[in-house]
Design a protein that fits this description.
Elements (H helix, E strand, L loop, with lengths): L1 E7 L5 H14 L17 E6 L23 H15 L4 E6 L7 H8 L12 E5 L3 E2 L13 E2 L7 E5 L14 E2 L5 H7 L6 E5 H4 L3 E5 L1 E5 L3 E3 L1 H4 L13 E2 L13 H7 L16 H12 L5 E15 L3 E5 L3 E5 L2 H11 L8 H8 L8 E5 L38 E8 L6 H13 E9 L1 H4 L10 H9 L6 E5 L4 H8 L3 E5 L6 H12 L3 E5 L7 H12 L2
Parallel strand pairs: 1-17, 2-3, 2-10, 3-4, 10-14, 11-14, 18-19, 18-21, 19-20, 21-22
Antiparallel strand pairs: 1-16, 5-6, 7-9, 8-13, 11-12, 14-15, 14-16
Amino acid sequence: MDVVAITSASSYNPDDVNASFQRLFSLLGLDPDNPFKEIIKPGMTVFIKPNMVASTWRKSCKDKGDIFSVITHPSIIELIADYCDIALKGKGRIIIGDNPSIDANFEELMILTGLRKLETKYRVPCEIIDMRPLYCDNLKNYGMKEKMVQQSGDPRGDITINLQDKSQFYGRDPKLFRGVFNEREETIEAHSGDNQLYTFGRSLFDADVLISVPKLKTHVKAGVTLNLKGLVGSITNKNQLVHWSIGSPETGGDEYSSISELEASKHTKVTRRGAWPGNDTIWRMIVDLYTALNTKDRQYITIVDGIVGGQGSGPFCPDAIKSNVILGAFDFLSMDIVATRLMGIDPMKIKYLDHYIKSDYHYYDSITVRSDFIDTNQFFTSHSKYLDFKVEEKWDVIKYRPNNKPIKKYHIGYTTGVYDLFHIGHLNLLKKAKDLCDYLIVGVTTDELVSYKHKKAVIPFEERIRIIESIKYVDKAVPQTTMNKKVAWEQYHFDVMFVGDDWKGTDKWNEYEEQFKKLQVDIVYFPYTKGTSSTLLNETLLKIRGE
């Protein structure tokens, strides 16, 4: 059972932070004087990874408030390092580092945070490192690898992990993948076939203990940015990080939500690529990073800085919110699930968290939430919105809504049919499908394709699709021009397909089950409504007409 603790924190004053830490340690059952002694042993190397994504506000940010709504506050980092030094007892090493956004000025970060003083504070060696081998000193050059400034990077080098078929990108066509740089060949090569590569800084990867210290903050591409999304800051080859697939859903991409939005982006100074809930790429990268990190055994600690949180247009342009909390745990995933719910966001609407929740690797019942100031009974199902962080309008779908219908299991559902002589059985199936997903896409078989059954539709395709798109349970009706469901998935990226149960167990659908399992797509079989079918209706009409 994983324990996540939540306590109040009034300010970043060192005395206030220490008082909050003491309450946090008590909730976690730790020794207040040496809280990390069971995890950090003398002689170990401890890597502390804060969120140091930016050194200043980007010019594109509309409002420029508290920069510590963007990055981890140094008072949190310093106190964690203090307790690490106590546990190490003069033997071992502390490394504080990050691989921040490619345009972040690290020396500006050091001046802003004052962290360099820690390099001479402790009995053990303490280093502050920037793991980036490349730095963008002018955002006008963003994406142009040849114009990046070369840096020394991680002093201990790096290590590449190949996830192969354990990657969420395995089996997917990489031709539309986009990393940090315009040179996509490197990104495509890193995620082609059995190559599923992620290169970590060795200082972080080889550490005995990894302490993650993220901000409590929203994110316009992933929904939230906490521990798992923060692992982007552990990768030294940023072009391996697939943030979106170029184009729109109509062309197989998720860079923009529609072709019209894509076209409009060509005439705007600041583009917002991949910044919408339909981004079906970035969550896969986040899950991969967590999978790759866990290929090595190590100890984990996470403390989330939520004294000032970031809501709205994170990670770079959030609005500051005085959330006045600090959270602590020993499991990154459990922390992210709890922190997300605390923000007033539904964890099952965050794709990378939902991946684990649906697979039962980490479900709510396996997490104990403790707090000294909020009621944690039925924490995940309570009607409370807790901190109620604001999100961008297009991200409103992820907000927790206790008074709505039960949380749906799937995001995008897909089903198909001829829908000739539409009847109550069709309606029942569509209603059941919509009850299980947020967005239901229905493929209506074209007249040309109906012939595969050596039949002819009574009602022409143009009328059948108009009937389907007018039904309230259907979010989008599309032509079905091929019986190959994998082709449909490549276009619509659904995470569940609904099928009549007469197909269950057939060779064809057994094969689909194997294919879709690799893509993390479920197949749900629905029983047909007894006594009703288009064939039966047609036969009845023929008898009535005397034909």
